[in-house]
Design a protein that fits this description.
Elements: E1 2-7, H1 16-30, E2 34-39, E3 47-50, E4 53-59, H2 66-70, H3 74-96, E5 100-103, H4 107-121, E6 125-129, H5 139-155, E7 158-161, H6 164-173, E8 178-180, E9 202-207, H7 215-226, E10 231-236, H8 240-250, H9 255-258, E11 259-262, H10 267-276, E12 279-283, H11 292-297, H12 301-309, E13 312-316, H13 322-327, E14 333-336, H14 341-357, H15 372-387
Parallel strand pairs: 1-2, 1-5, 2-4, 5-6, 6-7, 7-8, 9-10, 9-12, 10-11, 12-13, 13-14
Antiparallel strand pairs: 3-4
Helix pairs in contact: 1-15, 3-4, 4-5, 7-8, 7-14
Length: about 400
C-alpha cells in the first residue's frame, strides 16, 4: 500500500507519539508498504528506501507558537494556520497518491486539516486517537470539542484508538466507526533487559512527563524513598524543572543524594538505565488534576514498555482506571491504589521483595498485540475494508 501519515510529531520526535510512529512506520516499510510522514517536526526531504519500500518525511510548517499556547489561544491559532496545512496536505496527496491517509494528532490541527484535504481529494481517511484529546477541556473548549469531534469521527472512514477504553468512550460519546490499534512497540527493543541486572543497589526508576497526570504521585514516591534508607530513585523526564522542584520540596535528609533527575537522554540511554533498575514506577494521579473520563481511559505508552521489559512494576493508580484493569492480573506487578504515602512506602518495600525473588517476569499476557508487525497488519486490514467498500468493526 501507499500510505500518507499526518501527525504533529514525526517518528524522529523523542516523545510517546514519536515512539509509536517509529514502530509503526518501520514495520510498514518492512512489509513492503511505501510510507510518507507529513509532520510539523519532520526534517524536510529526508528519505530512506530499501527494495520496494520507502519512507519519506515532509515538513508541514510551524504549528501554534508557545506564546499562543500560554495565552490559551493555541486552538484559534491552529485554525488560522489550517488553510496552509490543508494546502500542503492536498499537495502531498496529489503528489503521492496514497491509498489512504492516517491522521494522528492533534484534532484541531492535523486531524481537522487531514479530513478537509481528504474530502477535497476523495481520499480515504483513517484517524488514530491515543487518548481523550479534549478530555480535560472546559468552557468554550469543551463546547468546541462537542461540535468538532463528532463531525470528525462520523466523517472519517475508520477511527482507531490506542485501547478498548478509548474506543468505547468515543463510540458512545462521539459516534462513528471504531476499532482498536494498539501501541506498536516491539519486545526486541528490550532484549538487553533479559540479562540479569546488577544488584549492588536497590533502585526504583521513573520515566515520563511530569505534569498533572502524576505530579502528586511523584511527590509521594520521593517521600517514600526519603523514608527508605538504601533506596535510590532515578527520574528521566523532559520536564526536568518540575521534577527537581518536587525533589527539592519532598526529599529530606540524605534522600537528595539518592535521587537523580536526568533530561535530554537518548532512548538507548533510558533503556540502559531501565536495565539496571530493580523496580519501574508507573503512576496516575489521584487528586482530580485530570477529569475522570480521561484518567480512566488513558493507557500511556510507558505502560506497554514497562510490561515488555519484564521488570518488576510498581503501579500506583486509582482502581477505576483502565491501567489498573490491564495490570492487575500480570505477574511481577505490585498495585497500590491508595494515594497515601504510607501505603506507597509499603508497596515499594513489597516491590523490592518481588524483584529480589525474580528479576525478570515471564508469562505476561496479551503482549503479542503490541508487536509492530501485528499493528501494521491491523492498520492495513482496517484500511482494506474501507477500500473494498466496508467499514471498521462496529
Amino acid at each position: 500500500m501507499n500510505i500518507l501519515i499526518a501527525s504533529q510529531y514525526g517518528p524522529e520526535f523523542a516523545g510517546a507519539t514519536g515512539t509509536v510512529l517509529r514502530g509503526l512506520v518501520d514495520a510498514l516499510a518492512l512489509q513492503g508498504h511505501r510510507v510518507v510522514v507529513a509532520s510539523h517536526t519532520a526534517p524536510a526531504g529526508a528519505r530512506s528506501s530499501s527494495q520496494d519500500c520507502e519512507i519519506a518525511s515532509v515538513n508541514l510548517g510551524s504549528r501554534s507558537g508557545r506564546l499562543a499556547g500560554l495565552l490559551g489561544l493555541d486552538i484559534p491559532v491552529c485554525f488560522l494556520k489550517s488553510p496552509a496545512t490543508i494546502a500542503r496536505l492536498v499537495k502531498q496527496i496529489k503528489r503521492e497518491k496514497p491509498d489512504f491517509v492516517l491522521a494522528v494528532y492533534p484534532i484541531e490541527d492535523i486531524v481537522f486539516s487531514a479530513l478537509v484535504a481528504c474530502r477535497l481529494t476523495a481520499t480515504p481517511l483513517v484517524t488514530w486517537f491515543h487518548d481523550l484529546y479534549f478530555g480535560a477541556a472546559t468552557g468554550w473548549r469543551k463546547r468546541f470539542a462537542s461540535v468538532l469531534e463528532p463531525w470528525i469521527t462520523r466523517s472519517a472512514d475508520v477511527n482507531l484508538s490506542i485501547s478498548p477504553a478509548v474506543r468505547d468512550w468515543y463510540r458512545a460519546q462521539r459516534g462513528g466507526n471504531w476499532d482498536v490499534l494498539p501501541h506498536p512497540i516491539g519486545a526486541g527493543e528490550f532484549a538487553s533487559l533479559r540479562a540479569p541486572a546488577p544488584r549492588a543497589k536497590r533502585t526504583v526508576f521513573f520515566c515520563g512527563a511530569v505534569y498533572g497526570n502524576c505530579e502528586s504521585n511523584l511527590a509521594q514516591l520521593v517521600s517514600a524513598v526519603a523514608q527508605s534508607p538504601g533506596v535510590n530513585l532515578e527520574i528521566y523526564t523532559a520536564n526536568g524543572n518540575a521534577a527537581r522542584r518536587i525533589v527539592d520540596i519532598y526529599a529530606t535528609g540524605d534522600a537528595r543524594f539518592r535521587i537523580s533527575v536526568a533530561t535530554n537522554r537518548t532512548r538507548r540511554e533510558v533503556l540502559d538505565r531501565m536495565r539496571s533498575a530493580d523496580v519501574l514506577y508507573l503512576p496516575l494521579t489521584f487528586d482530580g488534576a485530570i477529569p475522570a473520563d480521561e484518567l480512566n481511559t488513558m493507557f500511556p505508552t510507558k505502560s506497554v514498555e514497562y510490561l515488555l521489559s519484564g521488570k518488576t512494576l510498581l503501579v500506583h493508580v486509582p482502581r477505576s482506571t483502565y491501567v489498573y484493569e490491564r495490570m492487575r492480573t500480570q505477574p511481577g506487578v505490585v498495585l497500590c491504589t491508595d494515594p497515601d504515602a504510607a501505603a506507597l512506602s509499603h508497596a515499594l518495600r513489597k516491590s523490592f521483595e518481588v524483584a529480589g525473588r525474580c528479576q525478570l517476569h515471564h508469562g505476561r499476557t496479551g503482549l503479542d498485540q503490541y508487536a509492530p508487525a501485528a499493528v501494521a497488519e491491523s492498520l492495513c486490514a482496517a484500511a482494506s475494508r474501507v477500500l473494498q467498500g466496508g467499514r471498521a468493526c462496529a
